[in-house]
Specification:
alpha/beta, Rossmann fold, 7-stranded mixed sheet, 3-stranded mixed sheet, about 25% strand
Amino acid sequence: MNRYLREIGDRTLALRLAMAGRVHQYPEIQALKRFLSTFAIDCLFDVGANRGQYALMARRDAAYRGLILSFEPNPTVFAELERRAASDPKWHVFNMALSDFDGMASFNIMAADQFSSLKTPSGAQDAIFADRNRVTQTVDMQCRRLDTLLPELIAAHGFARPFLKMDTQGHDMSVCEGAGDILCQMLGVQTELGVRPIYDGGTGYRAMIDWLEARDFLPSAFFANNKGHFPLLVEMDGIFVNRTLVSA
């Protein structure tokens, strides 16, 4: 009976996403829902939150009820993120960037704000991105390393089983490097994987997968992170599981 109920739930979700033009998110939602539930995740780090789309997806589609900590540097976008989180007592937002240093940096705001990044657009990016992924202004922004910030957050919120999601437009490797040795405390990591990087110095997907594997994070799921750009894949997302959770 449980199997049939689960199948009905899956089909209902697929239909709802299709009607909303979001059917491409189905693989991500299914993988995320199963991961967060199976490993009893109690804190979701939402790094590069933009307007809170990922957090809302986790709540509404992936049935996640735990703590969410969202980080968004763009001050204009952050104002909307803050409004969305205001009615959720387990959703806290921070107007800062996570990186591999503590200090201030220039943050690039792009024509399409979801592309905003600490990195600069690549001159070799595909033409489809040229108008949207271009710098329109820069703002000075506070950056924090996760290894210096995490003890403060644990003291404030008391979580023990965190999951790190990053959508920092070419800067995910720096976020991971700023986690230092405490990265091993993450039970899972979700990261953008650039197949055709659109930022200068962006990490390629092979290098990112190898880097995480060297630190005992193994692939759990891969999926396109948008509707795709046929016939060449530009980016995908990967969910990686901490080896300690799957070791015999």
